[in-house]
């Protein structure tokens, strides 16, 4: 799935219980951490010699960081730096594995190529998990999941008083939350259609 969708889903996992801001950031980042192995696409793009193509994206994406070892490392980091250490580490593991599940469901290529997960890499190249009904990365299913995650994020912001914006800029987050609450108020106060 697209990284933005992973980030939103990670944020929702982070809000499954009351966590301090730093721990919410850790769990959210754990939800997009596996895609760090896709950064090779930048080196591929800028590779100067077309005669010997650079293939870090093809060779390493969904391999280096989409596995149990990476999940363990992310959880250990969460355990080390989280304020509510154990719950943050557990939710980071959930967030990470939700990413893997979502990739299995909906990260298919435009030509029908299936992206799979080598969960036990580097210890073992098999099993190689794929799903034969995997939908495309640019599919309506991913769009729908993203829209639902955005609505859930907005609903949580109205109820709890903070949104993912607060991970970067708490002051701006207060304005975002205030705006969302004003919109909700307007919807509640708008005159209903009078039956004839
Ligand atoms: Zn991924």
Write the layout of secondary structure elements.
Elements: H1 3-14, H2 21-32, H3 40-46, H4 56-60, H5 68-81, H6 85-106, H7 140-160, H8 170-189
The structure holds zinc ion.
Zinc ion binds next to helix 6.
Number of strands: 0
**Helical segment tally?**
8
Report the C-alpha radius of gyration, rounded. Answer: 20 Å
Helicity level: 55-70%
Largest sheet: none
Ligand catalogue: zinc ion
Low-confidence stretches: none
Run of helices and strands: HHHHHHHH
Class by alpha and beta content: mainly alpha
Mean pLDDT: 91
Beta-strand share of residues: under 5%
- Anisotropy-based shape: globular
End-to-end distance: 48 Å
Task: Provide a quick synopsis of the model.
This protein is an all-alpha fold and 196 residues long. It has helices spanning 3-14, 21-32, 40-46, 56-60, 68-81, 85-106, 140-160, 170-189. The chain has a domain at 3-136.
Describe what this molecule looks like in 3D.
- The chain is mainly alpha-helical.
- It has a domain at 3-136.
- Helices cover 58% and strands 0% of the residues.
- The protein is built from eight helices and no strands.
- Helix 1 packs antiparallel against helix 6 (85-106), helix 2 runs parallel beside helix 6 (85-106) and helix 5 runs antiparallel to helix 6.
- The protein binds zinc ion.
Features:
binds zinc ion; 58% helix; 0% strand; mainly alpha; globular; 196 residues
């Amino acid at each position: 799935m697209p990284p933005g969708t992973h980030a939103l889903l990670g944020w929702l996992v982070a809000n499954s219980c009351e966590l301090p801001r730093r721990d919410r950031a850790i769990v959210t980042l754990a939800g997009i951490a596996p895609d760090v192995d896709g950064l090779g696409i930048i080196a591929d793009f800028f590779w100067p010699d077309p005669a010997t193509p650079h293939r870090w994206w093809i060779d390493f994406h969904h391999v280096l960081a989409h596995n149990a070892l990476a999940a363990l490392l992310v959880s250990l980091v969460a355990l080390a730096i989280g304020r509510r250490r154990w719950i943050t580490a557990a939710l980071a593991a959930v967030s990470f594995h939700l990413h893997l599940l979502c990739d299995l469901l909906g990260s298919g290529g435009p030509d029908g190529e299936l992206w799979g997960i080598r969960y036990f890499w580097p210890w073992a190249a098999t099993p190689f998990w794929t799903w034969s009904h995997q939908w495309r990365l640019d599919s309506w299913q991913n769009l729908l999941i993203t829209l639902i995650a955005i609505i859930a994020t907005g609903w949580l912001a109205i109820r709890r008083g903070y949104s993912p914006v607060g991970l970067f800029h708490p002051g701006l987050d207060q304005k975002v939350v205030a705006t969302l609450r004003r919109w909700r108020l307007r919807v509640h106060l708008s005159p209903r259609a009078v039956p004839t």
